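pinging the channel bc i need a second pair of eyes. not urgent but kinda urgent?? the chain im working w is below, pasted from the shared doc
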Amino acid sequence: MTNVIPFDYEGQFIRFNTDGWINATDIAKRFGKEPNDWLVQRDSIRYIAALSKAIGKGDLLREFNIIKQLDGVRSASKAKMLRLAKKSGLVITKAGSEGGTWLHPKLAVVFARWLDVDFAVWCDLRIDALMRGELSAMQEFEKACRALDDQNAKGSLAGRELASHRWVKPALESRADYWRQELQMALPIDS
């Protein structure tokens, strides 16, 4: 996820991106839960399937109807529900420093409600501020993020060039010294 914005919720940072996606892994930890525990519930998968169809991401209801016939307790059933959630495009899992399970803004409040009703209200207000907030402030933030990314890329390139220079410079200096001496020997000496 790009352009991650951390919001403080009672002393803990909750990460959103500028499109309103929320890092479910961060917030689930705060409440002693795991995102997968929510994602393998039939009601959650039913909601994800219906939302996916409603916003044009695909009709997953037929697959959901097949899955709901399975025993929801078995690990094979849970794995199928997780695959369906990811297939929707509304749930993204990433590794690394910006990793975790990221939920589409339309899922964030439903997930937050499962965690805690007060947190759900807070979450809804943050998403609303991101999505409908002052556009110029959002544009300035995105511009600042792009400028920072560009500068980091330039710094990285400069660092590589400097490292290369450190190894190439002695050979070039030696070559220049050699030809300086050759040139001095070749010049006529006037008396």
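so Residues 134-191 form one domain. and The first strand starts at residue 4 and ends at 9. — does that match what u expected or am i reading it wrong
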